[in-house]
Write a structure and sequence with these properties.
Number of strands: 8
Largest sheet: 6 strands, mixed
Number of helices: 4
Shape: globular
Structural class: alpha+beta
C-alpha cells in the first residue's frame, strides 16, 4: 500500500520571530550624576516673601516678641475694597494734614510681632483704646492685656461678644521657646507693607477713599 503523505498547514503554528537589534544611542541625561546630587545634602536658605498683617486666629497658640523694638504704635488707614472687605494700610505721618476730613478712616494701632506654634510669623495690628468708643475700648484693653501675657507664655485668643472682650487660654503642654526669625523689625515691616504702605496721595487706597476710582 502506497504511503500517503499529508501536508499539515498548521493554523496557529507561527514561524520563529526574527530578532530585531536596536542600536543604542548615547543618553543625553547623566542619570548617575543626578543621583549623586540627590544623595548629597543640599544647603539652602528660606527667603521670607510675606508677613501677614492680621489678628491672631482663634485656633492658634502664639507668642508676642518681648523686645519693645519689635512693637510699633502707628496710624493706619482703613479702606473698604471692591468686595466690601476692610483693608489696612500703614500711613505715612506726612499725609495726616491732608486727610483731616477722613479722620474716621484713620485708626491708631499697635503692631506686635508674633509667631505661632507652627512657626508662622505675623504682625498683629491691635486696636488701642478710644475714649469716644466705650464698647470698642473694652475690646482694645483686653486685647492689649493678652498681648502682654503672650510675651511670656503661649496663649490662644478668642472673642466673647457677651462681655465685649477678648479672652485667652494658656497652652497646657510645653510648646518650647518661640522660634523668632533672624530679621530686624524694619525688615519685617518692609515685607509686610510692601504693597500697603501709603506715602503719597497717588496711592490706590487714597484714590478709593476720595472717590477718584
Amino acid at each position: 500500500m502506497p504511503l500517503i503523505h499529508r501536508v499539515v498547514t498548521g493554523v496557529g503554528i507561527s514561524a520563529p520571530r526574527a530578532l530585531i537589534h536596536r542600536e543604542r544611542s548615547i543618553p543625553k541625561i547623566n542619570l548617575e550624576a543626578l543621583r549623586e546630587i540627590e544623595a548629597e545634602e543640599i544647603a539652602y536658605a528660606n527667603v521670607l516673601t510675606a508677613v501677614p498683617v492680621k489678628k491672631p486666629h482663634r485656633d492658634d497658640f502664639f507668642r508676642v516678641h518681648p523686645d519693645p523694638s519689635y512693637t510699633l504704635t502707628a496710624r493706619m488707614l482703613q479702606v473698604k475694597d471692591a468686595q466690601e472687605r476692610e483693608r489696612l494700610y500703614l500711613l505715612s505721618e506726612d499725609l495726616l494734614p491732608t486727610l483731616g476730613e477722613h479722620e474716621g478712616n484713620i485708626k491708631v494701632k499697635k503692631l506686635f510681632t508674633c509667631v505661632t506654634s507652627h512657626e508662622v510669623t505675623f504682625l498683629w495690628p491691635a486696636n488701642t483704646p478710644n475714649l469716644n468708643n466705650e464698647l470698642g475700648r473694652s475690646w482694645a484693653v483686653s486685647g492689649l492685656k493678652i498681648a502682654e501675657e503672650a510675651k511670656n507664655t503661649w496663649v490662644r485668643m478668642s472673642g466673647k461678644p457677651g462681655i465685649s472682650a477678648y479672652v485667652y487660654t494658656k497652652a497646657q503642654g510645653d510648646l518650647g521657646e518661640p522660634k523668632w526669625l533672624d530679621m530686624t523689625f524694619q525688615e519685617l515691616l518692609d515685607i509686610a507693607f510692601e504693597e500697603t504702605y501709603v506715602d503719597t496721595m497717588d496711592h490706590q487706597a487714597i484714590k478709593t477713599l476720595t472717590g477718584q476710582v
